[in-house]
Write a structure and sequence with these properties.
Elements lengths: L1 H15 E9 L8 E7 L13 E6 L5 E9 L2 E10 L8 E2 L4 E2 L3 E3 L12 H4 L1 E3 L5 E5 L3
Length: 140
């Protein structure tokens, strides 16, 4: 009996998982290199290295890039951050003046931070039938 319950739960989770299309706009394609996209599923993991549920890297070849994230669970909250790794060091670099990122960044809901990065609650969205495609605008 327990075996059937486990199989039923696994089948149900497969039915509830689906794909999300993320469109990144406003990319300065002249700067080249990669766009890194990270998907987070909790406030505790938000913007923490190694705590993302998905991390994808794509080469910059135009001012719009599309990502496809597969097998997300519906009716669950997620937040997304992206950055343009202009110098190909794998890290988001910062400047002292003006203070903030020195490379392009973007966050789901186009959330903005005040005296720091955007908050998870401002960036999170519920992944459901109405949110299968989201757009994030890069800021330089």
């Amino acid at each position: 009996m327990l075996k059937y319950i486990i199989i039923l739960l696994l089948f149900q989770s497969l039915l509830l998982s689906t794909d999300l299309k993320i469109i990144i706009t406003g990319i300065d394609s002249k700067k080249g290199n990669d766009i890194l996209l990270a998907v987070y599923d909790s406030e505790e993991s938000w913007l923490e290295d190694g705590k993302e549920v998905i991390l994808i890297k794509k080469k910059v070849d135009s001012n719009i890039i599309e990502f496809e994230v597969k097998n997300l669970l519906e009716s669950k909250y997620y937040a997304i951050s992206v950055f343009h790794d202009e110098n190909a060091d794998g890290e988001l670099n910062f400047s002292i003046f003006p203070p903030g990122p020195s490379e392009g960044v973007g966050v789901s809901n186009d959330a903005k931070g005040f005296m720091g990065p955007p908050k998870y609650n401002d960036a999170k969205f519920i992944f459901d039938e109405e949110n299968k495609i989201i757009t994030i605008k890069m800021i330089y």
